Amino acid sequence: MQTIFFDDKGQIRSGWRTVTFLFSFLLIAYGLIFLSLIILSQLQETESVTGYLPLLIPFTISSIIAILLGWLFAKIFENLPFHVLGISFRGSWFRNLLAGLAIGGIAIGSAVLISVMSGGMSLTLNRDSSGSAIATTLAVTLLIFIAGAVSEETLFRGYMLQTFARSNLVVFGIGFTSLLFAFAHNANPDAGRLSLLNTFLAGIWFAAAYLKTSDLWFPLGLHLMWNWLQGPVFGINVSGIAQFSPDPLLRATDSGPVWLTGGSYGIEGGIVCTIAIVISMGLIYFLPMNSNQIET
């Protein structure tokens, strides 16, 4: 029985650590999110409450719980310091964040460019919304997408991936966390097989970015810029959700085919997304960035 639960160092095996972490996260985070949404529903309904807070608060709660649990699990089960989680302001964190923002922008920009050049999508300046409404959308959704990126990266590329990596199970950890990441989006509106595949590939993409630098700032930049440019800038649904960008800078008209451009799910449901992710993964591989040794 000891070999099932403990490794040769006497530590609880990474699989059990991950399962315990995941169930703890689901229990605590979703319980708090449920309570917060009940409280919000009792408040006087305003545009900010009905529009943005129900998006921002769950992401923020999820981020806090994923970071706290990641730190506690690393400390309790592996006797590791907080900075191992990869979310502290140490070393080259800002350079890595900027690199992620740049490559994320190149990736979504190339996907949109292919869509437009193929005739499957057209972009026009949004003249239906006021300048103040567009500015509000750009600013508020930036906060939402920051919280969303932190939430998903600290959960999927945080403790779960990292504890597998420290146990020399990198490939399994990437596959497992990328599957979780994909299925977490599969209930979104108009999700399909290609969107599931693309989200799985995106999980591998973000994991590769983490392993390149051994911190979360690089994948955070990728994730943030991809979502923010896609929604409030280009006016494309983000993972099937249009509510993220009520007044975008541009309006995207998708004339298909759906397999190419993604249709109502957004560009993440089309083959142009697949191409962009694969190309950007190759770019990450050849970047002259140093990875800090993963602590064991």
What does this structure look like?
The chain is mainly alpha-helical and 296 residues long. It has one domain. Helices cover 67% and strands 3% of the residues. The chain has eleven helices and two strands; from the N terminus they run αααααβααααβαα. Helix 5 packs antiparallel against helix 11 (271-286) and helix 6 runs antiparallel to helix 9. The mean pLDDT is 90.
Number of helices: 11
What count of structural domains? 1
Q: What sort of overall outline do the alpha carbons produce when their principal axes are compared?
A: globular
Kindly report the spatial arrangement of strands forming the biggest sheet.
1-2
Structural class: mainly alpha
Number of strands: 2
- Helix content range of the residues, please? 55-70%
Element order: H for helix, E for strand: HHHHHEHHHHEHH
Largest sheet: 2 strands, antiparallel
| Oligomeric form | single chain
- Point out poorly predicted stretches: none
